[in-house]
Design a protein that fits this description.
By secondary structure, this protein is an alpha/beta fold. The chain contains 12 helices and 13 strands. The chain has a domain of about 190 residues: 3-Layer(aba) Sandwich (Rossmann fold). The strands form 4 sheets. Strands 3-2-1-4-5-6-11 form a 7-stranded parallel β-sheet, sandwiched between helices. It has a two-stranded parallel ribbon with strand order 7-10. The chain has a two-stranded parallel ribbon with strand order 8-13.
């Protein structure tokens, strides 16, 4: 099978490419070439800027692929160019979308189901322009693909993912909690921040893509992907701490107190507005989606960060001493 992966090779792209190679696929990677990878001549590297639309079209217009996996379709114009470029000469176009497409709408049903997508947009919350715009643009990309399937049978399938976890996760969001569990001090959850955790393990996304590649029946469809377990953030942290043989104390602190002490809310990155809660039931029924048990992937990712990861600490960990000082003040 000949596949093209559009996007970086640091996290999901890395695991996806590694799995493709293990299955004997012929892989082409298209990205800006900023971050190195260890694939060498096992893959075809094509360096370029996706936003140079003419160059993208000229480079790929006459190439045929069994599948194109688009990891970085963030703007509808980019996706429109991709549709024009690959029209009539690919087997499947897999668009990696986000649960954020539900968070920018007036959706009242949680966990969100695929049909909940069709709701009016909310107004952009003050100060939330960047994540709001991300969700809106991803939504516009999806609507364009939906229309092109109806009008031209463009063979797109959309996968909506919540927060993705795994080894090589460069966002370091989970690692920021792991460091706090490890240091033994209480962990702050901002008020109203004890959110539902229904995320997904990176290998479950990879295995889903492998499963649908030869399946022509998925063309034009959209699937939510998410883990089976539904836990709150505090339950998630308690499970994680137990797997690390640690006990933790969780303290709720008002957002006002955090602001007064110059501590940003993103010290708890899974507490914010933009963490989606998806229902994967349709994917289970239609494509046999399954997820790795929560404790299994937590253990694997924790081991990676504590035993293999050699990069900088999570950016939000710089506020840890301020958090500890505030917790001592609250305790008294």
């Amino acid at each position: 099978m000949k596949v093209l992966v559009i996007g970086g090779s640091k996290f999901l792209g890395y695991h996806l490419t590694r799995s493709f190679l293990e299955h004997g696929f012929k892989v082409t990677l298209f990205n800006r070439g900023i971050g190195p990878d260890d694939f060498g001549d096992q893959v075809t590297h094509i360096t370029g800027d996706r936003q140079n639309h003419k160059e993208f079209y000229d480079r790929f217009r006459n190439q045929k692929f069994d599948a194109v996996i688009d990891l970085i379709g963030y703007h509808p114009l980019e996706v429109e160019v991709a549709e024009k470029t690959f029209r009539d000469h690919i087997g499947l176009y897999i668009f990696i979308s986000t649960g954020q497409v539900y968070l920018v709408t007036e959706n009242k049903h949680w966990p969100a189901r695929e049909e909940d997508f069709y709701q009016p947009l909310i107004k952009c919350p003050a100060g939330e322009e960047s994540p709001y715009d991300y969700g809106v643009k991803k939504r516009e990309c999806e609507l364009l693909l939906e229309e092109r399937f109806r009008s031209r049978k463009f063979p797109a399938v959309r996968l909506r993912c919540p927060v993705i976890h795994g080894t090589r996760d460069y966002t370091l969001r989970l690692f920021s909690y792991l460091r706090r569990i490890q240091d033994g001090h209480p962990i702050i959850i901002p008020e109203n921040g004890d959110k539902i955790i229904r995320h997904i393990y990176v290998q479950d996304v990879v295995q889903t893509i492998l499963k649908i590649l030869p399946d022509g029946s998925v063309r034009g469809k959209v699937f939510n992907l998410a883990q089976e377990e539904v836990v709150t953030l505090s339950e998630f942290l308690t499970i994680t701490a137990s797997l690390l043989d640690k006990k933790i104390k969780i303290v709720t602190v008002s957002q006002q107190e955090l602001k007064e002490h110059l501590i940003p809310l993103d010290i708890s990155p899974f507490s914010g507005r933009w963490v989606s809660y998806l229902d994967p039931g349709y994917a289970r029924r239609e494509i046999g989606f399954t997820s790795t048990p929560l404790p299994d992937w937590i253990s694997e990712v924790s081991s990676y960060f504590f035993q293999q990861y050699q990069g900088p600490p999570p950016e939000n960990y710089q506020f840890r001493n301020m958090e500890i000082a505030l917790l001592e003040k609250v305790a008294h």
